[in-house]
Write a structure and sequence with these properties.
Elements: E1 2-9, E2 14-21, E3 26-30, H1 37-45, E4 49-54, H2 66-73, E5 76-80, E6 92-94, E7 99-101, E8 106-111, E9 120-125, E10 135-139, H3 160-173, E11 183-186, E12 204-205, H4 206-212, H5 221-229, H6 239-245, E13 260-261, H7 263-271, E14 275-278, H8 282-287, E15 289-290, E16 294-295, H9 302-306, E17 316-319, H10 325-333, E18 340-344, H11 347-353, E19 358-359, E20 362-364, H12 366-375, E21 380-383, H13 387-390, E22 399-400, H14 403-409, E23 419-422, H15 427-438, E24 444-447, H16 450-460, H17 464-483
Parallel strand pairs: 3-4, 4-5, 5-6, 10-11, 13-18, 14-16, 14-17, 17-18, 20-24, 21-22, 21-23, 23-24
Antiparallel strand pairs: 1-2, 2-3, 7-8, 8-9, 9-10, 11-12, 15-19
Length: about 500
């Protein structure tokens, strides 16, 4: 009998899978997250031994747990044949039609390059090699509502056009030949930067995707290339780092323990290059925070956005609500940011006792922003949203620098000029504002409620006839921001 479970990690929009045969006790984990205890606990609870760890490709958006699982279970690490010679650790490679036999449950390999050259998909056949497929684990080849982008830095050595053409054939010549009732089991959902139109659903079918997925609509190969390469978000800065680490014999993730640090220890660490990441929500951070710290709220896409405000291997000090230190460190470890020095002990008490080390975050209502625009000549306004969001509307005169580009492009801005940043709803702009302040920008504010609040206020100030069209634009722009996933506000 088949055992099957999907695991969904919302903060990274990451889906992984445990598939086993309860009659033989053999199981495989596909595309695991780095902290692997849940897979091991479920395997033990159902009498399974994990014999294979299968990677659909070299992931760029998270550090995979293949090494951790192999170390703790003795499992073989499996990649597609195109990964041969590209890892520092032993792997078993499989190509088109190869079968990994767990018992009656069989996993059939399909080579589906396009998102990356080595991408594979895995067909689950629950009653032997010739049985009807239960589902197909598509990795980043086919998502619900989208397909994997072919332009990420993980695919060094191939152009986006070359990979897009491979992707077209992988979809039509491989995946779309499966029966309509075959479940589609992707590696990511809404919010992932590995695509631009991912659904909040995490399971679909081949038939449903054939009908509804824009990238599977009837079109030529050239039309497909244009459709899937346009409008993609800027890839987070840490993606190349993670993709490289996933090929290396890196250090294993051990038990995470975060030591408490005094204010003096934290300030000494900052003086030697450490970044203080404050994981409290943006409203709390705005009331008062350690001067020079960067706000990335744990309630959003904490790891992904932390990977956009510092270089990999940067020493990190955490500030969190009580009891959240270890989960923050684990979430950073999921993208390979392991250099956590500790966390500020008793932050609220420390802030009260040392007000000289604390500052608020300047936040403006839409009305206050309008007043500042009127009163300050040369006010710099920066839109940190993704290109697809900006295309639906922006504040006139705003400079567009997406959040993933801000650290690299900060020197294009005048550190002494009054500056206002905004996103869709306030989460990303708090990150951006605090990031710029931490790099010496003297006068930075963000807009409470972001572009949504500004556009709504703009509508309220218009005549009824003109407002109708603007409301539709605001609603569309708001939906686009929501489609970027939790925390992309």
């Amino acid at each position: 009998m088949m055992f099957f479970r999907q695991y969904y990690l919302g903060c990274l929009s990451h889906a992984s899978y445990l598939v086993g045969d309860t009659s033989t006790g053999k199981a495989a984990v596909i595309d695991p997250q780095r902290d692997v205890d849940e897979y091991l606990a479920d395997a033990e609870a159902h009498g399974l031994t994990i014999t294979h760890v299968i990677e659909t490709h070299f992931h760029a958006d998270f550090l995979s747990g293949h090494l951790e699982l192999a170390d703790r279970t003795g499992a073989v690490i499996v990649f597609g044949t195109a990964a041969t010679g590209h890892t520092e650790f032993p792997i078993e490679t499989h190509g088109d039609g190869d079968m990994i036999v767990l018992g009656q449950v069989v996993l059939e390999i399909l080579e589906t390059p396009g998102h990356t050259p080595e991408s594979i998909s895995i067909v689950i056949r629950p009653e032997g090699a010739g049985s009807a497929p239960y589902g197909v684990m598509t990795g980043d080849t086919l998502f619900i509502g989208d397909v994997g982008r072919p332009d990420l830095l993980a695919s060094v050595g191939f152009t986006a056009d070359e990979l897009a053409r491979k992707l077209y054939h992988s979809l039509h010549d491989k995946l779309m030949t499966l029966a309509d009732e075959t479940k589609v089991l992707p590696a990511h959902g809404a919010g992932s930067a590995c695509g631009k139109n991912l659904s909040t659903e995490t399971i679909s079918t081949i038939g449903e995707q054939r009908k509804t997925n824009y990238a599977l609509a009837p079109m030529t190969e050239d039309e497909f290339l244009e459709a899937v390469t346009q409008g993609q978000s800027v890839a987070p800065m840490y993606f190349l780092f993670a993709a490289t680490k996933n090929r290396e014999a890196r250090d294993l993730l051990e038990r995470v323990e975060v030591r408490a640090m005094s204010l003096i220890q934290v300030q000494d660490a900052m003086a030697t290059g450490a970044v203080v990441v404050d994981g409290r929500d943006d409203a709390t951070f705005a009331q008062g925070h350690l001067r020079g710290s960067v706000n990335v709220g744990l309630g959003g896409r904490f790891a992904e956005y932390s990977g956009q405000v510092m270089q990999p291997d940067t020493p990190i000090v955490l500030v969190t609500d009580p009891g959240q230190e270890e989960i923050a460190a684990i979430r950073l470890a999921r993208i390979g940011f392991d250099n956590v020095l500790g966390a500020l002990g008793h932050p609220i008490r420390t802030f009260f006792e040392h007000p000289e080390a604390v500052e608020p975050l300047s936040r403006l209502s839409a009305a206050e922003f309008a007043g500042r625009q009127h009163d300050i000549e040369g006010l710099v306004v920066v839109d940190v949203r993704n290109p697809s969001e900006v295309a639906l509307g922006t504040i006139p005169g705003a400079l567009h620098i997406s959040l993933p580009e801000l650290l690299r492009r900060k020197d294009e801005l005048d550190r002494h000029a009054p500056t206002v940043v905004f996103c869709a709803g306030g989460y990303r702009s708090a990150i951006a504002s605090s990031l710029l302040r931490s790099h010496g920008f003297a006068d930075v504010s963000d807009i409470i409620g972001g572009y949504t609040a500004w556009a709504t206020a703009k509508v309220a100030g218009l005549g009824q006839e003109a407002a109708a069209g603007t409301v539709a634009t605001v609603a569309t722009a708001t939906a686009a921001g929501a489609g970027a996933g939790a925390g992309a506000r």
